[in-house]
Structures are given as structure tokens and as C-alpha cells.
Write a structure and sequence with these properties.
Length: about 280
């Protein structure tokens, strides 16, 4: 058997947040305007534990529908019942959800792009020829996880939440391009990040597939992604601080000097909008 096929695996689960169009007049949130692809990185052998913790939580609260970050935060749709129970019961739910999030054996990873910053930086140079933000975000987070896989002698399976047919086709094309040609960025601007070449990416990035929101792991990716985005604009955002305090973000597990090329990527945050740490 080929040695590479015997390597243990990382599973990377990616959700998206915000709009992938650089100049669409739609603000992601009153707290910030971003597009992000990110979620959770987990060792394949730890996934059964994570799924059991998710199932146990849902069983305790009689939940037979997906945990959805937006609906939970706004107490809407399937989670409208959170408005009808006592404050103490609602507090117990959120505390139990927090316990789930920090106990699953995963790390949060993402690429978060400030849309106004991206527009200001690249519109004059590229105009309408700029590519969708998902190409930048997907390429960066996959390449950084591939470097973690090099460090840990693993390979990576990438799972992305299904959206629409066109967007999913683009993601599949980005993955094939990464494995065939390497990162799509100019060498002069990306060399400082020590990017892997196409040969290394082809070896480390094993395959890519799509998952529905019914996937427990994709639900966990959703729950992790929003705090990674929001926390860059709001340094005191509670769920982000909880993830940091419990070392559940990849940045908490690497050296400070490694964050620039291995950690969560915050792109196009200029001095005017940089409010996070």
C-alpha cells in the first residue's frame, strides 16, 4: 500500500458566512461586513466522540432538527421556543450549548475577509474582474490546513456545506485548481506566507465533498464560524472569548509567529476597520 494512503486524516468542515460578492450592497451584520469560509478541523479518529456529544446534547433538549447558529441567536423558526421558556431554562440551554462547543475535540479555523476593505484594496486594480470572495477564502483556509497536515503527518478531507449548484461547482473547481496548480495568488505577494506548492497540496489535500446542514459536524462548523467572524470586529464578544479561553481556535495552539501563515486569516482589515485584537 502506498505510504500516503496509510496516513491518518484530518477532516475539515467548512461553512460560509456573509455574501461572497465583493461589492453587493448587503451588509453582513450590524457588527461587521464580512465574507468567511471556515468551521472546524478534527482528527478523523476523534469524530465519533464529537458526534456522540452532539447527539447527547440534542437528546437532552429533544432537538431533532439542525443546530443553526442564526436561528439560535435570534430565537427564531425551530428555536422560537427559546422565547417561550423561563429565563433560567433558556440560560441552562445556552450554558449546555456552550459546554458542547468547548468539549468537542475540534479546532476552529477560517479565512475571514472584510468586504469594504477588499473592495477598497482591489476595485481600482481589477474592477469587475475580481473573483468571488469564496475563491480567496477557500484557497487560503485549505492551504493553511494542508500545512498543519504536513506538520502532523496527516492528509486532509475537505467537506463544504451545500449551497446552490453554481456555488458548489465553483468550490469543486477551486479544489481541483489547488491540487493542480497551487495557490492562485501572485508569488510576489504570497511568498512571505511560505505557501505549499501544487505537489505538496496534491499530496495533502485528499478529496473534497459536500454535506448538508443535517450533518452534525457541519452544524458544529456553523456554531464555530460566527464567533471567529464577529470577534474580529468586537473584541469583547462573549462566545469568541469562550473559544479562546478554552483554546478551541487554531491560533491558541500554535506559536505567535506561526499565526501569520498557519492561523486564522483575517484579510483586508485596514487600520480604519480593525477593531479586533
Amino acid at each position: 500500500m502506498n505510504e500516503s494512503k496509510r496516513l491518518p486524516l484530518y477532516n475539515l468542515y467548512l461553512d460560509d458566512s456573509g455574501t461572497r460578492h465583493p461589492d453587493r450592497r448587503f451588509v453582513t451584520s450590524p457588527k461587521g461586513d464580512w465574507f468567511a469560509l471556515g468551521g472546524i478541523l478534527i482528527k478523523e479518529e476523534a469524530e465519533s466522540e464529537a458526534r456522540k456529544l452532539h447527539a447527547d446534547f440534542c437528546g437532552r433538549w429533544n432537538i431533532d432538527y439542525p443546530l443553526h447558529s442564526v436561528k439560535i441567536r435570534h430565537k427564531s423558526e425551530e428555536f422560537a421556543w427559546l422565547k417561550t421558556i423561563s429565563k433560567s431554562d433558556a440560560d441552562a440551554f445556552y450554558q449546555d450549548l456552550q459546554s458542547l462547543i468547548v468539549s468537542v475535540p475540534v479546532l476552529g479555523h477560517a479565512c475571514v475577509i472584510d468586504r469594504p476593505g477588499y473592495h477598497g484594496r482591489y476595485f481600482e486594480m481589477y474592477g469587475r474582474r475580481r473573483w468571488h470572495l469564496c475563491k480567496t477564502a477557500f484557497s487560503i483556509v485549505c492551504e493553511r490546513v494542508a500545512k498543519l497536515a504536513v506538520r502532523d503527518n496527516r492528509r486532509v478531507r475537505v467537506f463544504v456545506e451545500e449551497t446552490d449548484r453554481d456555488a458548489d461547482k465553483r468550490i469543486s473547481a477551486y479544489f481541483k485548481e489547488l491540487r493542480a496548480e497551487g495557490l492562485p495568488f501572485g508569488k510576489d505577494t504570497s511568498s512571505k506566507y511560505g505557501p505549499l506548492d501544487a505537489l505538496d497540496l496534491r499530496h495533502r489535500l485528499l478529496d473534497q465533498a459536500f454535506k448538508r446542514k443535517s450533518s452534525p459536524m457541519m452544524q458544529l462548523a456553523d456554531l464555530y464560524l460566527y464567533p471567529m467572524c464577529r470577534g474580529r470586529y468586537d473584541a469583547g464578544y462573549g462566545p469568541t472569548l469562550v473559544l479562546r479561553d478554552h483554546a478551541k481556535l487554531v491560533d491558541c495552539t500554535i506559536e505567535q509567529g506561526e499565526i501569520e501563515y498557519l492561523g486564522i486569516k483575517y484579510s483586508c482589515f485596514d487600520e480604519q476597520n480593525k477593531k479586533g485584537p
